[in-house]
Design brief:
The complex is a heterotrimer of chains A (about 500), B (about 130) and C (about 450). The two termini of chain A are about 40 Å apart. Chain A has 16 helices and twelve strands. The C terminus of chain A is likely disordered. In chain A, α9 links the parallel β5 and β6. By secondary structure, chain A is α/β, with parallel strands linked by helices. Chain B has one domain: RNA polymerase II/Efflux pump adaptor protein, barrel-sandwich hybrid domain (OB fold (Dihydrolipoamide Acetyltransferase, E2P)). Chain B is globular. The mean pLDDT of chain B is about 90. In chain C, α7 links the parallel β3 and β4. The mean pLDDT of chain C is about 95. Chain C has two domains: about 110 residues, Aspartate Aminotransferase, domain 1 (Alpha-Beta Complex); about 260 residues, Type I PLP-dependent aspartate aminotransferase-like (Major domain) (Aspartate Aminotransferase, domain 2). A seven-stranded mixed β-sheet of chain C has the order 2-8-7-6-5-3-4, with helices on both faces. Chain C has a four-stranded antiparallel β-sheet with strand order 11-12-15-14, covered by helices on one side. In chain C, strands 1-13 form a two-stranded parallel ribbon. Chain C contains 13 helices and 15 strands. The chains are: A alpha/beta (about 500), B alpha+beta (about 130), C alpha/beta (about 450).
Chain lengths: ~500, ~130, ~450
Amino acid sequence: MNEKVTKATRHTNQNEGLIFEKSSPGKRAFDLAPLDVPDADVATELGGFHRRDGIQDFPEVSEIEVIRHFTRLSTWNYAIDLGMYPLGSCTMKYNPRVNEHVARLAGLATEHPCQPQDLSQGCLKILSLLEKCLLEITGMDAITLQPAAGAQGELTGLLLIRAYHQKNGNPRKRVLIPDSAHGTNPATAVIAGYEVENIKSNADGQVDIEILRQKVTGDVAALMLTNPSTLGIFEQQIPEIAGILHAKGALLYMDGANMNALAGITRPGDLGVDVMHLNLHKTFSTPHGGGGPGAGPVAMKKILAPFLPVPVLVKKGDGKLGLDYFRKETIGKVKAFGGNFGVLLRALAYILAYGPGVRQATEDAVTNANYIRKQLEGVFDLPYTRPSMHEVVFSDAIQKRNGVNTMDIAKRLIDYGFHPYTTAFPLIVPGALMIEPTESESKEECDFFISAMKAIADEAENAPEVVKTAPHTTRIRRLDEVAAARKPVLRWKPEAKRSGAAG
Amino acid sequence: MSYPTNFRYTKDHEWIDVKGDVATIGITDYAQSELGDVVFVELPAVGTALTTGKTFSSVESVKAVSEIYAPASGEVVEANTTLQTKPETINSDPHGAGWLVKVKLANLAEVTALMDAAAYEAFIEQKKKEASA
Amino acid sequence: MRYLPKSPAERQEMLAAIGVKSVDELFASIPEQYRLRKPLNLPGPLSETEVIQYFQERAGENSLGYASFLGAGVYSHLRSVVTDALLQRGEFLTSYTPYQAEITQGTLQAIFEFQTLMCQLTGQEVANASMYDGSTATTEAVLMAERITGKHRVLVARSLHPEYRDVLRTYARNSGLSVEEISFAESGGVDLAKLKASLTDDVCAVVVQSPNFFGSLENLGSLAEATHSVGALLVVAVTEALSLAVVKPPSEADIVAMEGQSFGLPPSYGGPFVGVVASREKYVRQMPGRLAGQTVDQDGKRGFVLTLATREQHIRREKATSNICTNQALCALAATIHLSLLGKEGIRELAEQNLAKARFALAALQRIPGVKRTFTAPFFNEFAIELPRSVRMVNSELLQSKIIGPYVLGSAYPELTKHALVCVTETTTREQIETFASALRTALERPL
């Protein structure tokens, strides 16, 4: 371990079993207030439906055990509150605490989606203001807040595109997707009923215009483009790309995962994008929570507005806000009960805190990424040299000469007190190191990160074994993923032997 | 590992070994080493028709899935069910016990057109050169 | 700005280190004419106090102070303060998806516990780490059945939640899946005769809900038998998961699609909630969503990892079992904590309280002249009633007594105008029930 690197933490080492292993009949963590109505005879009321023996093996623990159990578990996690996540395309920025406070207010957390609209004006105003703000940021005409995450936003976008083409007489067959795209893009296109055609990137990691020109026929519904690309590079020819598509009646879908490079600086709507999704749990600071919940609003040009999912937020004749369910050409619903309101509310709180100053966040994010790129150029191989925006992609080509790959470097970064960057993505860079520092990182934190990466590069050169066998300082070391996949054990069972386990 | 001289090989790293009008098909040592530890194998049912160049099986590692393409046409007469409980056999014995299916061939000529062991070994040497370039 | 950790001097230092004079140069790759020269027209910036004030004002414009008898797939249940105390720990709240298992064992073990609890509740062998909600879980369960059977027709009970059916239709429209509805019988359950008449061997799935949208419990045994006789799979949706504490679990189902919102998640005007897909082990490779699996590290210590990832979009891309990436992990954690707090006895007592309160309410309502229970099947905490006049009119009168009346069934079921869906949970007080009953009586006595 290189002691000159001052930010190095050891991870906590408390062991804790499963909640079921602490369970013992008769322990309880919860008391209910007594019933204020007469008891019911459950067995008689439910008859043959009655679950007489209760839920077998459900935990029985006390309140302090619940607190200790989950507190201990939490100490095994890395988190933004602890330090930087240099994860490319994830935009792991600070999750403001005031957002958590307002999401829990009585009168907001308590509201039922089916309650009278007249008694929901507060909620509807929040949704309406968020819509306005997101339209301003994206430069689009209409928006839906219904999709629950980015992938669902992508599906909604493609369904809108499909409905548009269908109305024009031909739903078309194919969606073009760059080979640098996130996996949700092709997976979603298939669910929307389209064939996926991959488009190779050119030597600069951008969409190859000539190849695009050949591939866009009357059979192509859309191109799904991430901008900046997953290499962190702005697709300079995006207006031309839009032109080529529009000339053949096809549409341009933008995956908005990398909006953190654009907010306040440029607007996708101005660039020729027809429809896009946003990831509120990325650009708009809503917490990742270990994997969700998120929200994936979809913004669009007015040509797609007739097909919006229902209900659509509208202003009524009496000046109040309402939900319009009667839209003849709607694609329907992608999720019950509207969007993830609690997440949408947090995103609005974030936008209100910044106001027009959201541009500063974007500038800081791009500054951080370029600062890191400058310091690590030459230390790590940089396969695509065009200017980086909010993220930079290196490769492990230099370290590979000593048998050290991106996964090893990522694991060693853990020993230096960081979460790894994104490894092995995008697919067009073999051995990729995708680094996105976000605007939430101070110069100090960036410098720590840089010195850690330099130390690891040094180790890869002079002591490769320590990198290849990392991490060394965590409570749990590299896990046997092969065994987990060959003989999956996906739940706890009370018996000593589990089905499928190798003894 | 050496590549058996009586096998034929495809550019997608399948091997095929003909005995009479029944052929055994598997993936090569190069393929299994690229894939890593095999965790799961999806095999076609007996009686399934194989079409040259179309996928008929898939082999999974923890982080990747490889589609397996039919080197020749025919009908599946046997599938290697031991791979269901011991998928790692593909790693340890890719040219032997790690076979995938046995097929009754439709057209023997399809096999003789494939690469022989020497040609395949040259092919993968070239691939390795390209990868480290 | 308080969220940005840079001083002006530091910004200058960093730009100098990069080799540019101004930050504008870093955006040179964006064509000039598309770079904004004016600030965006956005409200703010607001201080923390002002942000709170904005949302408090909005909170005062909703339904605070009203009693509600709405259920219909979203349920008001108790939440312990312990849940938020734990959920708000930064190591849970601000942590990423557990792809790097060594430093996310907290999340992974909690997911493993969640999967276990879901299996225990539903009587199924394996459960995933969450889907967006019950409606998308139900849709994904149908797509899973389609993959497993290779067939493309699905029969859906009309007593499945209307919005769940809407979502399924949206997804099905482009996938070659044909969706048909089977109506309900007088009892309130699926019309078995109509189902049998429609069951042919090109059906991949039969989808029912229990307790169904009307609150009635379905006879899953006979539904499963009919479904399996043509080689189709039975998908059972559960929207009120608390019912499983006292109602037999849907073990006859091949796939269960559950909404877990009742476990520690507030109604929050529609989300975020937490969906689950649970099924048999033999179908696990066709399951959508993430799965946490138990394994050991190189020192032999037990640990947990995301596993069977080759089903998912980031590896399988266009052949993935689903396009889902971000799911509802923090909501699943809330449910895990909530269920650990309730425990085996607590959840049973809570469910029994719901049962008792709902029956008290039903009895009180049935004493009102003209009010009748719609269906006869056993129920948990929701039931349908028929009124002698328009439910909408009655509900607008109830508002004057600060009561949000029951769900207007006519809005989703034209054959059930004049019927309303009443939900009563442990959070509804006796006083509120009695006020509701007397206000309803008054509303019905008023001349037309």
